[in-house]
TrEMBL record:
It comes from the Bacteria. Keywords: Transcription, Transcription regulation. Gene3D superfamilies: 3.40.50.880, Homeodomain-like. This is GlxA family transcriptional regulator. Pfam families: DJ-1_PfpI (PF01965), HTH_18 (PF12833). It comes from Chitinophaga varians.
């Protein structure tokens, strides 16, 4: 390895997504290729090394594609610039990597920076490296992560976060966003932007992870008041859905209805109705040709101005931008 090249060690975990590994690898490889042709920086760039967290060198990814790691983390004997934990895969369900978590804790003081892709954040947390820090992970695991690691300030809204020299990123493709940010940190915006263009991706992805997640967990709410009333509510979103109306439909007093509703689903009836209206509007934006004004009326969100305000509050994106980013591929 050239003395100028930065050693990036990526640790793939058994059963993780191939994109968790390949995304960051491709970003650093593209950057190195460009720098190699730059007469002023031919020796700059990155050396990428895959290191297995355990004794074996062969790891099978979620897709069945096998990854070969030239070394294990225990065999690493060179100064590491950047260490990335690529996902967690089947390790997410087990705590049987105590030696690896111990190694992470021991090697951390010698690193310039350390990071994780997707639920690789669990590994950093289990090693104690996220205590008292702000971190993100895949939006789907937000609640579980916070419950398991209460000392971590979990925020699954951004695609990636930085707290000191510890970096975490959200789901799968967010590893690419993180790698581009690390590249920009090392070599500036121009090179990072050029790599993004060559890979036909955004340098900074528009929006937030919030846009991808569900506002309501309907499976968890199935046997609650909210779950039982939901089919009727979806059909009447354009009408007044006050506590009094909801309570009358459930044959309950408004006071008792509001108390039971909040206890069962953790939301007031008004907040639940608003989230349901946004969820239904999202579906129309993705799958229909209805105008935004028609969708706002159909979902009880008032006019376009009111709908935009509610979307920004819940999804951090306007209805028009949401449609542009998420409309089904069947529409052109």
């Amino acid at each position: 390895m050239s003395a100028s090249k930065k050693l990036v060690v990526i640790v793939p975990m058994e059963g993780t997504s191939l994109l968790d590994i390949a995304g960051p690898c491709d970003v650093f490889a593209q950057a190195t290729k460009i720098l190699r042709n730059d007469p002023q920086q031919p020796e700059e760039g990155y050396e990428i090394l895959l290191a297995s967290p355990g004794e074996g060198h062969h790891l099978k990814t979620q897709s069945g594609v096998e990854v070969v790691c030239p070394v294990t983390v225990a065999e690493l004997d060179r100064p590491i610039d950047t260490l990335l934990i690529a996902g967690l895969g089947t390790e997410f369900f087990e705590y049987n990597r105590h030696d690896f978590y111990k190694w992470l804790k021991e090697v951390y003081p010698r690193l310039r920076r350390i990071g994780s892709v997707c639920i690789g954040a669990y590994a950093l947390a289990r090693a104690g490296l996220l205590n008292g820090r702000r971190a993100t992970t895949h939006w789907q695991y937000s609640q579980d992560f916070q419950e398991q690691h209460p000392d971590v300030q979990v925020d699954t809204n951004p695609f990636y976060t930085r707290d000191g020299n510890v970096y975490t990123s959200g789901g799968l493709a967010s590893g690419i966003d993180l790698a581009l940010a690390l590249l920009e940190e090392d070599y500036g915006r121009d090179l990072a932007a050029l790599v993004a263009k060559k890979m036909v991706i955004y340098l900074r992805k528009p929006g937030y992870q919030t846009q991808f997640g569900d506002l309501l967990d309907h499976h968890q709410l199935a046997n609650t008041l909210a779950g039982k009333l939901r089919p009727w509510m979806v059909q009447t979103l354009h009408e007044d859905l006050s506590v009094e109306r909801l309570a009358a439909h459930a044959n309950m007093s408004p006071r008792n209805f509001a108390r039971v509703f909040l206890k069962e689903c953790g939301l007031t009836p008004a907040k639940f109705v608003e989230k349901l209206r946004v969820e239904t509007a999202r579906k129309y934006l993705e799958e229909s040709d209805l105008s935004i004004e028609q969708i706002a009326e159909k979902c009880g969100l008032g006019g376009m101005v009111s709908m935009r305000r509610v979307f920004l509050r819940h999804l951090s994106v306007s209805p028009s931008d949401y449609r542009r980013n998420f409309r089904t591929s069947l529409h052109h």
